[in-house]
Amino acid sequence: MKDFEKIYGKIKKMAPEHHFEFKNDPFWILITTILSQRTKDKTTDEAARALYNKYKDSYNLENADPDNIKKIIKNVGFSNVKSKRLIEVSKIINHDYSGEVPNNHDDLIKIPGVGSKTANIVLTQGYNIPAIAVDTHVFRISNRIGLVKTKDPDETEEALKKIIPLKYQIEFNPVFVEFGKSICKPVSPRCDICQLTECCDYYINNKKIKK
Predict the structure, then answer these.
(1) Percentage of the chain lying above the pLDDT 90 cut
(2) 162-to-37, 64, 149, 169, 192 alpha-carbon distances in Å
């Protein structure tokens, strides 16, 4: 088994700081994460901030005109679907949970459009509750390095829970996301500047052998 703490320490040093537009605000973390699906971070943050500036909270967003929301988030992927989804989510938060976003995984994934990744982002970044949010970066990097050998995000989440101490789980996703965007990219990872080559399965099996 690989030394997670050693590997994670190196990744954290290499990864730029991650920016969360609404750190510690569960509702807007939820909205931002829903918007982020199939959308670049900069576009997501701009749309979420514009929504916040106009509507401020779940009660105003519940009563918003979907066409107005669509105009605000027009650059976000699937904006037509998401404009209606945001109103639906706001109604559920307001009427089923008294305006407070649930702080547990089981209730969060009952909300339309909220899968395990989104739920865990809300828990870690909205409530500072340890959880493992597996997005494309976490799935790719964890398997590429050889921390886990899994076939899908759900399996990856369960496998990572077994090896990542609770004290790292809140910051784990943001660190891996930035490492994945800057160094361990989906195509042409920058192994030439990465500090993990001695323990990375991808490098050992593909790059090192070609030298």
Answers:
(1) 92
(2) 27, 43, 13, 11, 30
